[in-house]
Amino acid sequence: MLHYALIFFVVAIIAAVFGFGGIASASAGIAQILFFIFLALFVLTLVMRVFRS
Questions:
Q1: CA-CA distance, 17 to 12, in Å (whole number)?
Q2: Chain-centre distance of CA 52, in angstroms?
Q3: What is the DSSP letter of 53?
Q4: What does the pLDDT read at residue 52?
Q5: What angle do CA 43, 36, 46 make, to 5 degrees?
Q6: What are phi and psi of 20, to 5 degrees?
Q7: Count of domains for the chain
Q8: Range(s) of the domain holding residue 37
Q9: Which segments cross the bilayer (predicted)?
Q10: How does pLDDT run across 25-46, given as a tens digit for each residue?
Q11: What are phi and psi of 26, to 5 degrees?
Q12: What span, in angstroms and rounded, lies between the C-alpha atoms of 28 and 7?
């Protein structure tokens, strides 16, 4: 999931360089959502691992 967030971030940067503002903002929004989902799942996994041990 973090891989896809990075891909969308790179697409957003490339689109912004070439002047495609709509595509850049959409890609950046998707990348941000995917990053926060990844972060939430990562923290949940860490908490579950602490409680299992």
A1: 9
A2: 28
A3: -
A4: 92
A5: 10
A6: -90, 85
A7: 1
A8: 2-52
A9: 5-24, 30-51
A10: 999 999 999 999 999 999 999 9
A11: -65, -45
A12: 10
